[in-house]
Write a structure and sequence with these properties.
By secondary structure, this protein is an all-alpha fold. The protein has 2 domains: 57 residues, Arc Repressor Mutant, subunit A (Orthogonal Bundle); 148 residues, Tetracycline Repressor, domain 2 (Orthogonal Bundle), CATH 1.10.357.10. It has 12 helices and no strands. α5 packs across α6. The longest helix is centred in the C-terminal third of the chain and has 24 residues.
């Protein structure tokens, strides 16, 4: 009887909600959202598709759970900071890295901003906005502006990354783009011509954090 119980516990653990979500994350990373089906997921878990519905009601619910798991881990990994400004930088950096590693998370955040994954980021950013000394309705405005920039810029970065074929060198591609910008009409695109030389070797994360600093400087100046 004891052996049967242990075997039953192992089977139940293999089909736990947590294991299903973990397998879904792996599948999403490998195949993207279009590759996530209950049939394929069941094959990975060596079970029947019907068994998954005991733990997850739909693909939409599974996507939310998978995104929330990735975001929760990113929030847990955000470094402890001595100041609210540094804490926001740490949170932003982890969101940027998480969406860069799991582009489908960005799609889910944009599709369902009222669900737990986005709320988790909003809460963490909002607490630090309060700690900065922002008061009243400005808390919502400041936290919303930061959230929009952090998530939006991270999604754009991940989208840009998927434009490159594995065989394409990023520096070479951006170098070619820079050359095209330099040849643009001087009267219609004077700004792009001027910054073209910066394009090939810019660091995406460094530029992202620099943009964040501009917003934080504005928030602090308004106090």
């Amino acid at each position: 009887m004891g052996t049967v119980k242990r075997g039953s516990e192992r089977r139940e653990d293999a089909l736990s909600r947590e294991r299903i979500v973990e397998a879904a994350i792996e599948l999403l990373d490998d195949e993207g959202e279009s590759g996530l089906t209950f049939r394929v997921l069941a094959t990975r878990l060596a079970t029947g598709a019907g068994a998954l519905y005991w733990h997850v009601a739909s693909k939409s619910e599974l996507l939310i759970a998978a995104a929330d798991t990735v975001v929760a881990q990113a929030m847990d990994e955000a470094p402890v900071a001595a100041s609210p400004r540094d804490a926001i930088r740490g949170i932003a950096g982890k969101v940027f890295e998480a969406i860069d590693a799991h582009p489908w998370v960005g799609t889910q955040l944009a599709r369902a901003p009222w669900e737990a994954p986005m709320l988790r980021i909003f809460e963490r950013v909002g607490r630090q906005v309060q700690a900065l000394g922002v008061r009243g309705g400005a808390q919502f405005t400041s936290a919303s502006a930061l959230l929009s920039y952090i998530v939006g810029a991270s999604i754009q970065n991940a989208t840009n990354g998927r434009l490159f074929e594995p065989s394409v060198d990023r520096v070479d591609f951006l170098g070619a783009m820079s050359a095209r910008w330099k040849e643009l009409d001087a009267h219609e695109y004077p700004f792009l011509r001027k910054i073209a030389a910066h394009l090939p070797r810019h660091d995406d994360l460094a530029e992202f954090l620099a943009g964040l600093e501009l917003i934080l400087t504005g928030i602090e100046a308004s106090l």
